[in-house]
From TrEMBL:
Protein name, UniProt field: HU family DNA-binding protein
Superkingdom of origin organism: Bacteria
Upper classification of the organism: Bacteria, Pseudomonadati, Bacteroidota, Flavobacteriia, Flavobacteriales
InterPro entries cross-referenced by the UniProt entry: Hist_DNA-bd (IPR000119), IHF-like_DNA-bd_dom_sf (IPR010992)
Pfam families to which the protein is assigned, alphabetical: Bac_DNA_binding
PANTHER family: DNA-BINDING PROTEIN HU, DNA-BINDING PROTEIN HU-BETA
The species this protein was found in: Flavobacterium hungaricum
Keyword line: DNA condensation, DNA-binding
Cited SMART domains: BHL
Keyword DNA-binding among UniProt keywords: yes
Family: Belongs to the bacterial histone-like protein family.
GO MF entries: DNA binding
Keyword Endoplasmic reticulum annotated: no
Amino acid sequence: MNKSELIDAIAADAGITKAAAKLALESFLGNVGATLKKGGRVSLVGFGSWSVSSRAARDGRNPQTGKTIKIAAKNVVKFKAGAELEGAVN
């Protein structure tokens, strides 16, 4: 499912226009992104939770040349599925 298909499904399920569903989805995504950018955590009970984790700088290897390269430290987003979501797919 891509973004436009999700918007269509939200609109149909909620009985709202596609424009309203698009605004709601974009608001959700924007708020999740803003919360994570601040270092916060977003939890939806039964669905899952998003959090930010720091990945330390490390040495890597270029597979073509075999040379060692430096990989910079960065923050990464992690998602942990909730029990209901895991149950739904298993």
